[in-house]
Amino acid sequence: MTATEIFYTILLNTLPIIILIIPLFFIWKKTIGKLYFRIVGGIIIFFLLYWILPIIFQVGDTPDELIVPSTEVGNVAYGIGYIFAHFGSLISIFFSYPLITLPFIFLAAPFISMLICWNRLRKEEGPTKIKLEELSYEFKLSPMERTKKELIRNNWTREKEILKLLIVLLPISLYLLQVILEISNLQDESVTTGETALGWFLEILFVYLATFIFSIEILSSSQIALKGRYFGEKIREQTYKSLYTIGAPMSIFSIILFIIQYETSIGIIIYFFAYFIMASVIFILFIDIFEPISIFIFVKLLNWWKNRKKQKVDRSNFYYMLIFGALALVAYLILNLALTNFGYTSLFGEPGSSEENLIYEAGEYITSNPSFYRTFQYDLIIIYGILTTEIVSTVILTLFLVYGLKYVRSIGLGLICFLPFVIILSLLIGSTENFWLTGKLSYTEIFETGFYTLRTASLTAKLPGFLNALAIPYLYTRYIFNIIIWGLLIFYFKKSFKIKNIPIGEELIKKVIFSNISEFFSFNTYAKGEVSYLISKEEQIEIENMEQEREEIKDLLNILENDKLLEELKPKDENEKRRFYFTLRYLYNNNLINIWEPELSYLFEKAEKQGLYIIYDDGRGVFNYAFRSDEIQDPGLVSGMFSAITSFVKEMTKSTEALKKIDHGDITILLEYGNKIFGALFIKGTQSSEIRAPLKEFVQKFEKKYGEILKDWTGALSPFKKEENNKLVEDIFKED
C-alpha cells in the first residue's frame, strides 16, 4: 500500500463516524445529548465489529477488487455514495437491536421477574392473598421522568457488573454451542455452515441470557419488598454471587478446552467473543431507556395478580382495538406492497430473480471481484429491506396500538384484542430467510487513487433441529414483543403520574399511583363510581380568566388546592350529581383541572417516626434528627449501643451480612448502610418499605454530600449542623 492509499483508506472509512460524532459537541450537556451519546457509542462498537474486525482477520487474504467501469473512474460522488451506503447498511443492521432484539428482552423479563417473585412468596408462611397484600415496591417517577434521570446519571457501576457477568458466562455458553453443533453433525457439512449457525444462535443465546439477568435487575430496581424486606436486592446479590463463583472457573476451563480443541479456528472464536461483547455493550447502553417501562410492566403484573379476583374487567370500547388492529394490518400490507413492488422496481428493477442473483453475486462469498455497482446496490437493498420490513411494520402497528389504547378502559384487554393482528404480521415477517451479515475485504479505484474497504457479505443462517427448536421462542415472538413494548413505551412515556396516600382504617394506608386520563370519562362511568378518580387543580391558571367564572367554579378550584378524590366531591343529590358532572367536564376541557385514574396500589401499615441517627462506621454519632422533640434519644448512647450490638451479632453468628432491623416490643429500629456511615431510624409500628426506602435515600444523599469530609473524619460535628440537613430529612420523609 502506498502512503496515498493508506491516507484515503483511513479517511474514507472513518468519515461517517466523524460526521456522527460532531453533533455531540453541541448537545452533550442536554438530555437528548446523553441519549445521542449512547446511540453513537453503540454504532461505533458495531462499526468496530462489522467493519474493522473482519479487516484484521482478512489481512493475509487477497482482497476482492470491486470492478469500476472506466467511464466511472474518478467519480467522487459515486465513491462517497458507496461509503455512506455501506455505512448506512451497517446502521440499519444496528438499529434492528433497539427495534427488534432488545424489546424481546425488556418485555419478556418482567414476566420472568413475576415468576421469581411468585416462587419467593410461595416459600413464605401464610396465605398467598395476605402475602400479596403485603408486597410493596418503589414507584415515584413516571417512565419518562425515570428515563431522563437515568440518562443524566453519571454512574456506570451497575452496567459494569452486568457486562462482567455476561462476559463470565460467554465461554461456557459458546463451548456448549460448539458441542451441540458437533453432536448435530453440522460441522461435517462445511466450515462456513457450522460457523454461521454458531454465530446466528449465539445472538439468540445472548438474548436469553440477557433476559434472565435483566429479570433479576428488575427485582432489585423496583425495590420489591415483603413486609418491608427488600428480597429483590437479596435475590440479585445471591444470583450474581453464585454465577460469579461457578461461572468464573468454568469459563477459564472452557477457554482452555477451546484452545486445545479448536487451535486452527481460534480467529473465529475470537470473532464470536467480540460479537457477544458487542451485543452486551449495546444492551447496557440501552438498558436505562427501556428499564423504566419494564419496571412499570412488572408492577402492573403484580397489581393484576393481587386484584384479579376483586376487579371486573371494563370491556367498554374494546372493539376499538379490533378496528385499529385490522386497519393497522391493512395499512401495513398496502404500504409494504407499494414499497416492495413500485418502490423496489423504480430503484432496483424487477423484483424476484434479479434480487436472488444480486444476493448470490454481491452477498455470498462465492463471487470474486464483483462489480462496484452491484456491491453498491446490495447495500442499498439491505437498507431498503430493513426499512420496509422492520421499521415500517413497527411504526405502523405501534401508532395504531397507541391510538387504540386511548379509547379502551382496560389496557390488558386492549392488548389482547390487538394481539392477533400482530401475530399475523410476525408470521409474515418471521417466515423470511435469515442471513448472517459480515464484511469482506475489498479494493477499488473509484477515486483513481485506490483505497481499501469492505463489501457486505451475507451467509444463509440455518440452524439444526435442536438449536432451531430452542430458537423458536425468540424468532416467532420478537416482532410481537417489539410492537407491544414500543406501544406501551410511547403510550406511557408522555403520561404524568401522581401518588396519594389514602388512610384505610386506623392501622393501614393505601398508596395509590394515579396517571392522567387521555379523555374525559363518560357519565355512565361517573355515575357508577367504580373508578376512584383523583381531581387536582391545574398549576398554571390565568387569574384574568378566573374573574369571569361563576362562583361555584371558583369555590371548587379553591377546594382543589389540595387534591381530592372524586367521591369526596360528588354531591349526594341525583340532580346535583348530573350538574356537577358537566361542571367537571367544563373545567377539564378548559384545562383548569387535571383528572387522574388509578394505575397501581398497595397497602402498608402506619408507622410513627421518632428519631433518625447517622452514625460513623466506628460508632461515633454524626447527625441526628427528632421527628418529635420528646422522643429523641441521647445520640452518644445510641451510637455506642449500635457499635456494641453490631459487633456482638457479627461475632456470635459469624455472618458477613449487616444487621438490618432490631425489634423491641412496639419499637422497631431500621438500619441502612453507606460506605462510611449507616442510618438508624426509630419507629413505632411494623417495619415497612415506605419507611425504609426514605432512610436508604437519605443515607445515600448524606454520604454523597459529605463524601470528602467522611473519608477521614476527625470527629468534628460542625460541618453537619446545618439547617439544610433538617430540610433534607423533611423533604425525603414527608408524607404524600
Total count of helical runs of at least 4 residues? 25
Whole-number mean pLDDT: 81
Structural class determined from secondary elements: alpha+beta
Main pleated-sheet profile: 5 strands, antiparallel
**Rg (C-alpha, Å):** 30 Å
Number of domains: 3
Low-confidence stretches: 187-192, 351-366
Number of strands: 15
Overall 3D geometry? globular
Roughly what fraction of the amino acids lie in strands? 5-15%
Distance between the termini: 70 Å
Please bin the fraction of helical residues. Answer: 55-70%
Strand order of the largest sheet: 6-7-10-8-9
Topology overview:
Layout: H1 3-21, H2 24-27, H3 31-57, E1 64-65, H4 76-122, H5 128-133, E2 135-136, H6 143-152, H7 157-183, H8 191-221, E3 225-226, H9 231-261, H10 266-307, H11 319-348, H12 353-363, H13 372-405, H14 411-430, E4 435-444, E5 451-460, H15 465-475, H16 478-493, E6 497-504, E7 508-516, H17 523-528, E8 534-537, H18 543-546, H19 551-559, E9 564-565, H20 566-569, H21 574-589, E10 593-605, E11 608-616, E12 621-626, H22 635-653, E13 661-664, E14 667-673, E15 677-684, H23 689-705, H24 707-711, H25 723-732
